[in-house]
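REQUEST ID: PR-0412
SUBMITTED BY: lab tech R.K.
PRIORITY: routine
TASK: structure prediction, single protein chain
INPUT:
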Amino acid sequence: MAEQPLAFWLALVDRLVEERFSAALEEHGVTRTQWRILGVLGSGPASAAGLEGMLAEVPTDEPGSTATDELSELVESGWVTAGESYTLTERGAAAHDRIDDGIDALRATLTSGLSEQEQAATASALERMARNLGWTEQSA
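STATUS: complete
OUTPUT:
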């Protein structure tokens, strides 16, 4: 195979990570937005106002769906309780743990064979490239 430019590898890795990540979430029957909600609630209960405010800033993966719709699905599924605050149920906490285990395994696969120094150097180089193209932490 001819040597490929950096942009080829960046695009390929991005596509493969996205495919695997989506498959891991789909395996558990959740969207990326629902996974984010479970992650927030995995740290503890969140007030309705606080969680809904945070969700207003989160884009959804599903066309025509809002983060509030995604939260409602988690409540309907029995993974989250609603009231003055939102809390993971026992089923929701177990699902959150299973999903996180799958995501951790994916991350381990992604970085398999890379030393901590190689991972740090790669992350640093990618951050520099992003900044070279105009990215700032405020634009994240």
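NOTES: Helices lie at 6-27, 32-42, 48-56, 67-76, 90-111, 116-132.
REVIEWED BY: pending
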